[in-house]
Amino acid sequence: MRIVNVNEVLPKEVSTDPLFFGGKVTTQFVLEEDYTSKKLQIILVKFAAGARNKVHTHSTEQILVVTEGKGVVASKDQEYIVTPGMIAIISPGEEHWHGAAKDSSFAHLSIIGQPNEMKIVE
pTM score, two decimals? Predict the structure, then answer.
C-alpha cells in the first residue's frame, strides 16, 4: 500500500505543452516517472478561468476526478459542466477536451493507463 500526499510530491509547473490554451495551466505529477512509465500516469492539472485543452484522444482510458472549481468536459456531441466530486471516464480513442469554465478556475486529477499515446485532433 502507498499513501500519497499531493502537497508533498513533485512541484507543480506551469505547462508549456501546446495542448493547452486560453490561460495558465499548471501540472503536478503525483507519481514518480519510473512508476508512471510502466503502469499509470496521475497528474493534478489546474486551469485558470477560461483555460482548456485542444480536442485530443488517448490510446488508453482516461479518468478525470474533479477536485476544485467548475469545468467543462466535452466530446464531439456533448458538453458537461463538472464540479468537485464528479468523475469523467473517457474511452480510448474518444475525441474530447476539458478545461475551466469561463468564470471559474478548475482542477482535476487525470489518471491514464500506460503506455498511452495522445494525439491532438486538428
Answer: 0.90
The predicted-structure confidence for 35-75, as pLDDT tens digits, reads as follows 555 788 899 999 999 999 999 999 999 999 999 999 999 99
When comparing pLDDT for 20 and 36, which is higher?
20
- The CA–CA distances, whole Å, from 21 to 4, 56, 65, 85, 116 equal 29, 13, 21, 25, 22
* Domain-located, residue 64: yes
Query: Does residue 4 fall inside a structural domain?
Result: no
Closest residue by Cα to residue 82 from 54, 90, 35, 10: 90
Query: Does residue 84 form part of some domain?
Result: yes
Assign residue 74 the CATH number of its domain. Answer: 2.60.120.10
